[in-house]
Amino acid sequence: MLDKAMAVLHAVAEQPCTLTELCARTGLPRATAHRLAVGLEVHRLLARDGDGQWRPGPGLAELSAGAGDALVDAASLVLPRLREITGESVQLYRREGTHRVCVAALEPPTGLRDTVLVGARLPMTAGSGARVLLAWADAATQRAILPEAAFGERVLAEVRRRGWAQSVAEREPGVASVAAPVRDASGAVVAAISVSGPVDRMGRRPGARWAADLLAAADALQKRLQ
Question: Which residue numbers delimit the IclR-ED domain (predicted)?
């Protein structure tokens, strides 16, 4: 199976391709090629563009660099200030396949908090972080997730227009959150930065309170990724 997975990687490395083209290049049955490609996507070794074509994923560059995670390193400098400003839990999420993974998080020292552990894999069907990551995801990923999501295409369009997302008791009862996209040097959305906490403190419109500070933090992260 490892040999087949490597064949898929080499085929995509030659040139981005559709699943049909991938099968033709590797000689693998369609079901096998699809299963391997999806598995490699989960580990970020492959990714799909807006047209649904497979292409090399960011995980390959990270492995070849042999260095630390630049996004997480940047978060270690930006998240403490955001937590200080808001007094709430702050997180950084990265999309992996049809899930979002918490890659950095800090909690307030006292009081009720929304605890999300680093490494936690959450569905992309609820929450402001999910809304942000899905709003800028490829069309195939959106089609796969939206039928099960607590929101629809109209919400994603509003997130793209406004530049941030909010949710109240969507991912978890009693929790409100605000999230904004984090972009790399090329402008591509690579993560979602989020502030979350009890609805009693965050309010029913948490974006009105914290969106500006969140966007400033997202901008600070982008500057550190350049």
Answer: 59-226
To the question of domain 70-225 being in CATH 3.40.190.10, the answer is no
Degrees, nearest 5: CA angle 7-12-122: 95
Measured CA distances, 15 to 26, 33, 50, 60 (Å): 13, 16, 15, 15
9 backbone dihedrals φ, ψ, rounded to 5°: -60, -45
CATH topology of domain 2-65: Arc Repressor Mutant, subunit A (1.10.10)
Buried b vs exposed e over 2-36: b needs ≥16 C-beta within 10 Å? eeebebbbebbeeebbebebbbebbebeeeebbbb
The answer to whether 12 touches 56, Cβ cutoff 8 Å, is: yes
pLDDT in tens, 58-92: 766 555 444 458 888 899 899 999 999 999 999 99
Single-letter residue type at 197: G
Fold agreement (2-65, 70-225): no
Closest CA to 196 of 77, 102, 125: 102
**Where do the structural domains in the chain lie, given as residue ranges?**
2-65, 70-225
**CA distance linking residue 16 with residue 181, whole number of Å:** 26
- Asked if 35 and 71 count as a contact pair (C-beta separation under 8 A), the reply is no
Summarised one tens digit per residue, pLDDT across range 131-185 is: 999 999 999 999 999 999 999 999 999 999 999 999 998 888 889 999 999 998 8
Nearest alpha-carbon partner for 126 in 72, 194, 80, 58: 194
